[in-house]
Predict the structure of 50S ribosomal protein L27.
Amino acid sequence: MDFYGILKSAHKGFGYLELLLVALFIIALLTTMFGFSGKVNKFLKKTTLFTMIFFHVQFLLGIIMLVINFTKGMDMGSVMKNADLRFQYVEHPFSMLIAAVLMTIVNKKVKSNDTISLAVVIMGLIAVGLFAFAFPWAKVFAGA
Ligand code: HEM
């Protein structure tokens, strides 16, 4: 397997892990908001931290893959014209990048406060929404 193949398999593998972490993060966020009246707990701290860490790992792997594609002379004109390629090389990286930034902010808030505000919950849910939009479900579950 070549270097790009190794990156892509690692990126896909961490993709599964991130799916589990994001699911745990949503449960922690909503139970904290509606179960613990916003009081920060260990479950929320841990799920937020690991979700953020693997967003950063995925960003690192993803950006290297993007750079490799650009150095191989990927033509952005044809990428933008093709919906699948546009999703894979523009919408997916860009949306996941914004989600990673939001998760970094949420983690900082969760770490440095005893309670979480509605604004932090909304930010967390927007990050999860972007993740769900940008996650290549067909590629992962239908093996497309
Ligand atoms: C949590 C965040 C992320 C997850 C769960 C994720 C997941 C995935 C998955 C499952 C694939 C399909 C791999 C395959 O076809 O075998 C993929 C492809 C890709 N991802 Fe991500 N990704 C994330 C973040 C990012 C970021 C931030 C970037 C770039 C900045 C990125 C760039 C790419 C690229 C370029 C591909 C296409 C690889 C190819 O088919 O040549 N990803 N991603």
